[in-house]
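Field reference: "sequence" (input) and "structure" (output). Example, Thioesterase/thiol ester dehydrase-isomerase:
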Amino acid sequence: MVTKCQDISVLTGSQGETVLVTLEKNITNDSGFSVRDTRCLAYMRIPEHSTKEIRGVKARKTPDFSMTIHPTSLMLFRYSALTYNPHLIHYDHSYTTQVEKYPACLVQGPLTTTLLLELLAANLPSNQRIKSFSYRALLPMYVQEPFQICGKKSISSGSYELWAINQNGHITMKGTTEIETIE
């Protein structure tokens, strides 16, 4: 895997500054090029004594298929180890709650993405495969708080919509896939 920083930009808005970092990861194997993963990471300062509640959008669609996930500390630790992600917010409760001021360790966005894609793959016809996936993380999810991953086939395009819902029914991640038929 080769990772390149494509862009860094700073946005200033009503919530303060947000730094956007766009990374492109190209993965190859013995057969050549395999996957391109482009991510835009948003870094923002969270006010220390914020009383503002995080607002979310309620899920309104009925999924064609879904699964409930119960994220544990061990699951988050293993995924961090698997992906070489050393950030303490995924497995160190004291650091996460005392330094970063989150209520609990955060579920990794890429873990949610992996779970969504595995759910879709398990529900695709055998002659179809995922060609691409575009997604956006909207809200954080926390260890020990169950969440639901969902999918629905788009009638018009043959693509699929995927989303994750937290225990309050708010959408935490949403995305769309492009599907191709295998001959």
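The chain has a mean pLDDT of 88.
The chain has two domains: 1-47, 57-182.
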